[in-house]
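Slides due. Your pick:
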Amino acid sequence: MNKQALRQVWADSELSDVWATIDRNAPEAVVMRPVPSGLDAPISELELDLMKRAFGGQTHGIDWENMDPEVARRWRAGMPFIGTVSWSSRSQFGGLPELPTDFEWPMGSEDYLEFVAQIDLSELPEFEGRELLPSSGVLAFFLDVACDWGEFDLPVACHYFADPGVLRRVGRHPRVRDPFDVEVWARDSGADLLDPDTQAIPPARLAMQPVVSIPGVNERMGWEGGDHSRQQLFDALEDIPDDRLDELSDWLLDNGPTPDLQLLGEPNPIQGAVLDANSGERLLLQISTVDPYTWGDEGRVYIIAKLEDLHNHRFDGVRATWDGG
């Protein structure tokens, strides 16, 4: 779903002129989805029937009798068949992180911050903007899930470990309070969600795919200036009629991976802009509502860094905010 793959799809389409503008100006991002258990299990008759129905006659070149295991993997993970997909071995959502033995777990407003994800940067697929992140090492993200959801600034910590060799798996999440007393955990999962031994949610590896990243309509309308690269992007989008841009956005939404997590690229706000246009900010990680997190009211969390810090591969100055319906 990156630009290289989509150029072939859109070259002869009715929206080829719109795509050409997007291709020149919009950045790429990496979308990540937690991988379900049983990813490599043999395909069942029921799954095979569901796949055939879902494709509606569009075979994508699939040999139904001798199915490539990669097809089943993508189907189960909800990843599209256009473009490449990277399957993580170390990167993960939830669970317990790998940390140095002398690491002090960061604190939030009322409890230790919740560990939400770690990303092994060597596992990332190639994409435009890759140079904003180190080529190797591990990023670990921690958020406050016990905060006041009337506030939009969330306690957050992002730690970069350049040498993965010094990292060791943590044995238990250091909790002070019951996370199910906190609004963000208000799902139907129940108290059995946490592993009683580790006090962590079940870990999930990540499926990762580069995508074209188009700003959300609200942020596009709220643009008031800033650095030259984003100004050029927003000027280009303003020249595209809304209905035609919506057509392209809808196609990408229907055919692309669900952005459970998104690394870099443009944020997708729900109600209003989340970046300070005049502060040289960039999205580092966007986390959508994905079990067990609701982020207030079925919202999204945005972990934001200064562009200058990203160029210098510094992550200790990030901030976090959220947006909901």
Helices lie at 3-10, 16-25, 45-55, 69-77, 217-221, 228-238, 242-255, 307-311. The first strand starts at residue 28 and ends at 34. The mean pLDDT is 85.
